[in-house]
Design a protein that fits this description.
- This protein is mainly alpha-helical.
- It contains ten helices and three strands.
- The protein has a three-stranded parallel β-sheet with strand order 1-2-3, with helices on both faces.
- The termini are far apart.
């Protein structure tokens, strides 16, 4: 279709859209008549279609720029929320949130009860046997690090607070999405996820006490202490597997950790991999064989 004919056929709709947008500059969408709101949506969609046609068939940059600005302006007026400032926040906490809680308190109470039940199970089980924490989802490397060095993971966040904050935020969002999505399985998936996280958190809290280990597997391990406490790690096998391209753990830090462990009598085996801050599956079979050999070898008598 020739450009002039295209403009003649469509210009009345574009002018009407401009008139409605000008009206919205001095009022709000809620104050328009119902027919005007419907007309606005209909003409906006038609103009967006005209923009696509103009981009594909027209070589007139002025027409394309005009339609593009018109569509952007209309989109902003239609889809933006009415600015209410602090009143919107106050309404949420004073009315909307309490109303939603009252309507769903039974489900909220059930979720909290499941969380606490398995939290208690994880707490008691990990208190009696630290290995029980692995069943509750605590990584063995974290358990061994906490027991051997009595490290509080939250204290290390100050050294890389941006990375730690983003990791915690990402994990919390992930838990929220999984808990919501698993509700599609008649709520069973949601209960399982709540139970898992309750046990995980409680077990991790209980692992800040000393115990005796045959060894440790440190994957993507950082230096927990600049000046670690004295400890006798004789007959203790420690496997360190860090990435050569790890942005958080430089090679000097890995060497420092290995040196600290060797100075205290540990047998340190380093299994570097070419990746970053991750677990390399290629080294897992070798680690598994080493752990099996340690399990079959009796520890020296003290």
């Amino acid at each position: 279709m020739p450009t002039d004919r295209f403009i003649d056929n469509r210009k009345n709709a574009w002018q009407r859209l401009e008139s409605l947008l000008t009206l919205l500059d001095i009022t709000s969408l809620k104050k328009l008549e119902r027919d005007e709101v419907r007309e606005l949506g209909r003409i906006y969609r038609r103009t967006a279609s005209d923009l696509a046609i103009a981009r594909a068939e027209s070589r007139d940059p002025r027409l394309i720029n005009y339609l593009n600005s018109l569509v952007i302006r209309a989109h902003g007026r239609i889809y933006r929320a009415d600015a209410q400032g602090g009143q919107r926040i106050r309404n949420f906490f004073a009315r909307e949130f309490p109303r939603t809680f009252r309507r769903t308190w039974r489900y909220t109470g059930l979720a909290f009860a499941v969380f606490m039940l398995f939290g208690v199970i994880g707490f008691v089980g990990s208190y009696r046997d630290p290995d029980f924490s692995e069943l509750m989802g605590v990584p063995p490397a974290f358990r061994e690090l906490a027991i051997e060095t009595k490290t509080h993971w939250w204290e290390d966040l100050n050294e890389a607070n941006q990375v730690g904050a983003s990791s915690i935020l990402t994990h919390n969002i992930q838990v929220t999405i999984y808990t919501f999505a698993c509700g599609a399985f008649f709520g069973v998936g949601t209960l399982v996820y709540l139970a898992f996280n309750g046990a995980n958190i409680a077990s991790a809290m209980l692992l800040q006490r000393p115990d005796v280990l045959k060894g440790a597997v440190l994957l993507a391990a950082m230096v927990p202490y600049a000046e670690p406490p004295s400890a006798d790690l004789s007959d203790t096998l420690v496997i360190i597997s860090n990435g050569d391209r790890d942005p958080l753990i430089k090679s000097e830090m890995t060497k420092q950790l290995a040196s600290q462990l060797r100075e205290r009598g540990a047998e340190v085996v380093e299994l570097p991999h070419p990746g970053g801050h991750q677990i390399d599956r290629a080294v897992l079979p070798q680690i598994r064989r080493m752990i099996a050999n340690v399990s079959m070898t009796p520890r020296s008598a003290e």
